[in-house]
Amino acid sequence: MSLVLEQVRKSYREPDGKPLPVLNVESFRLAPAEQVALVGQSGGGKTTLLNVISGITAADSGKVLVDGTDVTRLTEPARDRFRAERIGIVFQTFNLLPAFSAFENVLLGMAFSGRADRAFATQLLERVGLGRRLSHRPGQLSVGEQQRVAVARALANRPRLMLADEPTANVDVANQDLVLNLIRDTCTEHKIALLLVTHAPEVAKQFARVEKLAEFNRPGA
Predict the structure, then answer these.
(1) Which of 10, 14, 41, 42 lies closest to 23, judged by CA?
(2) 7 domain-assigned
(3) pLDDT tens digits, residue range 80-95?
(4) 221 found inside a domain
(5) Of 21, 71, 72, residue with least CA distance to 45
(6) Given 17, 61, 158, 197, which residue has the most CB atoms within 10 angstroms?
């Protein structure tokens, strides 16, 4: 399995000190190279789930196995290295470095794992329609263009697992299919497992497997 979750729990603290359960996942599996759309309402724990899987946020308990490695057992520095080498992430907020160009943002994403492929970085940006904006910084790009840079950066290392948090949410209708096809085609080509979070029915219906977060995450149980 590319991804296995077993008895994963995560809670936060409310201002009055009471625990606020967010994740309570008994079991979830994603096969190698499988592509799954995860559907859930805002505030349902989708982003927290992706953060726990990637090791950005530590789970309170349970197992999170990515490509056979239990992320929950790694130290924070080890989780950072593992994420750079094995996991690609498309964030809702993009997380682009404002002082660097689109090309440099993609290249820097590769550098964290020690593999800098300038030709592949250029190819990815060309495939998302930004071949003429390689030298543009994020502040010189539209919101949709920034999203496309973020997608290219997430794919740059040819990761084993791709996590995409609403990757089409800030892209205009004309480019939604372009972004979605880039993610799915690249994952297919390089045998990357994909877990894509969306609330859009038109996006979810393009996947053979669609999971509803509310059906396997029961934080109040």
Answers:
(1) 10
(2) yes
(3) 889 988 999 988 778 8
(4) no
(5) 21
(6) 197
Percentage with pLDDT > 70 across the chain: 97
Domain membership of residue 167 as a residue range: 3-216
Q: How far apart are CA 60 and CA 52, in angstroms?
A: 10
**Amino acid identity of 8?**
V
Residue 59 lies inside a defined structural domain of this protein: yes
> Domain of 16: which CATH number?
3.40.50.300
* Dist. CA 142–CA 205, nearest whole Å: 27
Backbone φ and ψ for 170, nearest 5 degrees, come out as -110, 20
The verdict on residue 65 lying in a domain is: yes
Q: Which amino acid is at 107?
A: L
Q: Could you give the residue ranges of the DSSP H alpha helices within 31-156? A: 46-54, 76-86, 102-111, 118-127, 143-155
Least confident of 52-66, 161-175, 187-201: 161-175
Q: Which residue in this structure is represented by tokens 């950005």? A: 56
Domains contained in the chain, number: 1
Strand-pair partners of 66: 3, 69
